[in-house]
Amino acid sequence: MYKTRSSLATKTSSRRQLIKTGIFGAVGLAGVASVPSVMATTHGAAANDIKILNNALYYEHQAIWAYGFAATKLSQSNVGKAVLAIALANQADHKEHRDTLASVITQLGGKPVNARSEYLETVKPYLEKGEGNLDSDVNIAKLALALEVDAAIAYTSEVAKLKTPALVTAGASIGSTEASHATAIRFAFKTLGVDLKVVPAAFVSADTRNSWIVRV
Question: How far apart are CA 6 and CA 54, in angstroms?
């Protein structure tokens, strides 16, 4: 079920790998679609930012798919319903990020990357490393947590590479959104009786990643 399709193999990596390679993760730039300074950016800056934002858009598509796919695996228990509520709220944010990113990329003269029908290959590394699974409501939540933590880490390093000031400012503000997704999931674990700190570290970074995720 989790085998990687060969046709997708050349453009697949987990968000954890993105941290290592510096590809921009899931950054949302809500509120910048009509900022005048976006339109006033230079050609060189636009080309740079289009590439970064399209990478971001690719992973927003991935996040939206992941939440939708995982939702079909949840049970109808109280725990399953609670996890679903969090998933839908987080997915709604990612959809807003997607729409805004596509709009900004278009304004900059670029072509927004299209969504794929599925991104199962990007979930597989998490399952293999025990950072979530699809076999229970709790493990699905753990998978979502790992994805959101990596999203928060990945965008942090890339937002500084944007050359349009309005995008840098707006992108930085979304860091709190990505981290809040992870915090909301950890809070849900806390309410279920799991002994953990809702905010386990002062920073969400590659160095503190292991403190944020919850393994199977």
Answer: 23
